[in-house]
Amino acid sequence: MVPVAFEGFLWLELEDGYDVWLDGVRLVRERRRGAAINGSVRCELVLAAGEHRLVVLVEDVAGASAFGARLGDRASGAPPSGLVHGLAK
User: What global pTM score does this model have?
Assistant: First the structure.
């Protein structure tokens, strides 16, 4: 649940392909292999206040399936205070 409107970025750490979906709409997709895992993948997010579903599909071509994610505002600050999140089971 996003307490107020939010504009910022989702930063991802991964080495192979990925898809990012927000509320059933694909935001970005890239197919790649063995890229550096340095947190340089950035996806813009514009969220109205309320509940949203963010889905990140990670491809594992070979080796470990590396994954990391962080959310920050446009100034690389913290996400909004009161942001509620959870993992789907």
Answer: 0.80
> pLDDT at position 20, please?
95
8 Å CB contact between 55 and 18 = no
Two structure tokens written together for 29 = 């997709």
DSSP category for residue 25 = E
Q: Which stretches in the chain have pLDDT values below 70?
A: 87-89
Measured distance CA(34)–CA(61) in Å, rounded: 8
CB 68 within 8 A of CB 39: yes
Query: Domain limits of the chain?
Result: 6-73
Query: Can you give the pLDDT at residue 8?
Result: 92
Please tell me whether residue 50 adopts helix, strand or coil conformation. strand
Q: How far apart are CA 62 and CA 65, in angstroms?
A: 8
- Asked if residue 43 lies in contact with residue 9, where contact means CB atoms within 8 angstroms, the answer is yes
Report the distance separating Cα 82 and Cα 10, nearest Å: 17
